[in-house]
Specification:
CATH architecture of the largest domain: 3-Layer(aba) Sandwich
Strand content: 15-25%
Strand order of the largest sheet: 6-7-5-8-9-10-11-12-13
Radius of gyration: 29 Å
Helix content: 40-55%
CATH class of the largest domain: Alpha Beta
Number of domains: 3
CATH superfamily of the largest domain: Mur-like, catalytic domain
Distance between the termini: 42 Å
Structural class: alpha/beta
Largest sheet: 9 strands, mixed
Length: about 550
Amino acid sequence: MSIIISCIYAAVTLAAIVFLGLREFHMLQLNGYKTPEHSWWMKKNFKRYIPLCVMLVIQLALIFTDQVIWLPEKHVFNSGLNKVSILICSCLTVGNIAVAVSNKPGKKFKKPFKYTARVKRMLVTFFILIAAIFAGAFFSADIVEIGGGRRFTSNIPLIIAGSALYLTPILVPLSNLINKPLETAINNWYINDAKKKLASMPELHKVGITGSYGKTSMKFYLSELLSSKYETLKTPESFNTPMGVTITVRRDLKPTHEYFICEMGARRVHEIKELCGIADPHDGIITSVGPQHLETFGSIENVINTKFELADHVSPLGKIYLNIDNEFIRKKAPEYKNAVTYGVYEGADYHGSDIKVSDKGTEFTVTAPSGESCRFTTKLLGEHSVQNLLGAIAYAHGTGIPLEKLIIPVKRIAAVPHRLQLLDKGGGVTYIDDAYNSNPSGCRAALNVLGLFDACRILVTPGMVELGAKQEELNFEFGQEAAAACDYIVLVGKNQTVPIYNGIKSAGYDMEKVYVADTLGEALAKVQAYQTDKKKIVLLENDLPDNY
């Protein structure tokens, strides 16, 4: 094989490796750098790897051809058969160009790839592995002078170099595994530094918040209420992982802070325990327990036990605030003597009652354990929003803030971005942005909020994910509930929304009013195209990340 053709093939292959590798690292990052989750994601999205498998088969065909073309013992070159080899190599080069083009940088993602220090270290390991493969190809080369030109006596070097491209989806998580001891050591150093900083502030009061859903909203509500009297720090956005908490403590915690509100997320058993080991909360709040992340938890029992790792960590001198409107929490609550309960459920220590909801907001009354009561109003939509407000009010009142002093802070609370956030875009269309919600209870609550509006009610959703064996069943039920609440339904994603579609159909819904779009952009264009005399109110329920 001509060295020139071989060099072109190698250069194209290297470009394809770089582009494909960066895309795979992006997916690994979206999967939280968790190799098991990324492996599961690869299995679920196996279709994206079919072209590489086809090219691998062609590559194997080249090996076979190589045995026919060359007679190594005599170094005899058959020019006729070599044309076949060149043709095959050219086809592989074109295929590699296709891989490079399909993965080239520039595509817009909802959550762009971030070149963090960890990613840069993994890239170094990845390219060392690639270099090792290319070195193997180089040292396996046997070059001879034939017909006035220099040629390889075998296609084996090209096959070895090409294998780097086909192995890229494996080499990316392998780089993560190789770097794991180093990353663990680095993370532990930062975590220990954060622990030292927290230990140096014995007067700082730390409260942990966890739950299958509602924890981010609770964090924002509680921060608003506590800030009316105390200097308060909360973990920003969705910083609810060990490194997210560590970054917040090391970067943002000041000696003047009196309260630290720490959101705690989990996808596996004992991850809340790990977070408690870092933040060491005096008090805790458990907002909910439900069928979320069942693919990684395995069972609802594991979800319950993991969420209550926060309650187990809180000392008898601290308090654990529990939402007993949730049936799983209600059953566990009696096990904790330091529990303070809240909810609309009769018997809650902080009881919400006389709830009135409209498309303008919500009113409700809170009765404290002492019998004191107070009427609150909020711009937040829906009866379900009262639950998190009750928990925030209960905790703030427990710190010594009178109920009446909380009326104005509660009224001031705005919706958390992408969590039932009302957005009036003009042109007769108002959006209820609930893009960060992806659980059955939240979806049901969002449909109830949609029902508050006297308008043309439209649902746009890709459905719910990470629900394990129950995913199809729960999405089917979601479809049935949507059929009872919506005038039009737009589903995003033809494959994953099949259970929702079937649920809608089983409810006897007019299927002419159901549209299945490939992308969110196409879905929103369809919403704009609907002709109606009423104002359109559009519920954006969940928005899957780029790895779905």
